[in-house]
Amino acid sequence: MSFNFSTPSEPSLKGGKAFVTLLKRDLTLALRSPGQTLNPMAFYLMVASLFPMGITPNPQTLAQLAGGIVWIGALLAVLLSLDSLFKSDSDDGSLDQLLLSPHPLPLLVLAKVTAHWLTTGVALIVMAPVLALMLHLPAHAFSALCLSLLLGTPLMSLVGAIGAALTVKVQRGGVLLTLLSMPLYIPVLIFGTGAVRAAMDGLPYFGHLLWLAALLVLALCLAPLAIAASLRILVDS
Amino acid sequence: MSSTLIKKWFHSIASPRGFYQFSGRLMPWLAAITGLLMVTGLVWGLLFTPPDYLQGNSYRIIFIHVPVAFLASAAYVMMAAAGAVTLIWRIKLADVLLKAAAPVGASFCFLALVTGAIWGKPTWGTWWIWDARLTSVLILLFLYFGVIALRGAIASEHSASKACAVLTLVGVVNIPIIKFSVQWWNTLHQGATLTLTEKPSMAPEMLYPLLISIAGFYLFFLLVLLLRMRTEILNRERRTQWVQTLTGNGLEK
């Protein structure tokens, strides 16, 4: 799909417009090939249903594990979907167009990551209560689960996009992407599941959420720079 | 005048050839001091220190565990610094260092986990526990694996060097988490054994061999690192005249 960026002679205030254009383009692409959005969701559902079959269908045990299962499922689904974040753009050459555009590259990659989160992360958050219900998570922990995922999924998109950018030119980079991103996801996972566990025990979970929010702000500031740098490195070669 | 001399010296050292020659002269001395310190620290620590009043003889593993654990994270910080130098000043030697240090750092990290497990069995009654410090060191090992794997996956040496630099810099976020995990989360692992700002709580007869052992392990790390860097330099510069002359390949023709 073609898209039109302003030429260098135009005033550079159009960065915001480029952001919106790119976001719209990625969302349109996702809408036209719904598999990209639906596959991670189906994967999410399947991973979550493996646990009752693999460990125990006992509601008490499942309730204990539910928070962690929903979080790990979300983490794996995000990882799965990240592989294609820059791949198709790299294959059809539009990634080179992005790199050549006069607009700041960190802003453009932020648009791509935002589109990724809107198509994957939001779907995972919407599905999470359903899975939590299937896994007998106590009702009073639902809000903690949803809020932690609300902060955690954009964080995972941002951090994982660094790995996706680093592996964009690597043949069969999916496993490598997992290897690079997983260590960076672990703090997110710890605070996310920590919030759910605290809520289950009737303890305040706001602290965990604040940690996630702090990490999200940090990632919002630094990850686009790292993603842009990684893309430039690999495409320059 | 002296500043230009230092600049000149620095430029000659930072070039692969200058570094190779300089490290070659340094090597025998470094090896001798490393051997001396490691033997002194380990023999003193393992054989001649008194047993701990609480942990008996099992505490003696600190003479290996503490230096190795220090180095596991210090090596990563050093790699991140080298990554920054690679990206900012594009000094080739920094990337040689980053590449050479990754497997060494990973092995120290692995050793820290293994010696920790050996220490954990008699003191905590378990080989492994999902304690904050242990888990974060395990993540550090995964970070090392990531850097090594990324290096292996990218064919172009130029892109691999920069990609690894970016990845190490991103991963360095984990280092403060490891450092403060013992203070932030009140878990099984004991607090820091040594801190720079406070008076050591250890008895001097245990402290001195520990300090000597730490210095020995640091130098050992440096020695292995230099060896690996020298090999890497020879490999990268194999087509240049000076390496051809050095290895005798050029003379045959």
TrEMBL record, chain B:
Record InterPro entries: Cyt_c_assembly (IPR002541), Cyt_c_biogenesis_CcmC (IPR003557), Cyt_c_biogenesis_CcsA/CcmC (IPR045062)
Cytochrome c assembly protein domain mapped to chain residues: 18-189
Domain of life: Bacteria
Gene Ontology molecular-function annotations: heme binding; heme transmembrane transporter activity
GO biological process: cytochrome complex assembly
GO cellular component: plasma membrane
Transmembrane segments: 26-49, 61-89, 96-120, 132-154, 166-186, 206-229
Entry keyword annotation includes Mitochondrion: no
Membrane topology, as annotated: Multi-pass membrane protein
Coiled coil: none
Main location, first listed in the record: membrane
Entry's localization field: Cell inner membrane; Membrane
Keywords: Cell inner membrane, Cell membrane, Cytochrome c-type biogenesis, Membrane, Transmembrane, Transmembrane helix, Transport
PANTHER family: CYTOCHROME B_B6 PROTEIN-RELATED, HEME EXPORTER PROTEIN C
Chain's role: Required for the export of heme to the periplasm for the biogenesis of c-type cytochromes.
Family named by the database record: Belongs to the CcmC/CycZ/HelC family.
Name this polypeptide is given: Heme exporter protein C
Source organism per UniProt: Endozoicomonas montiporae
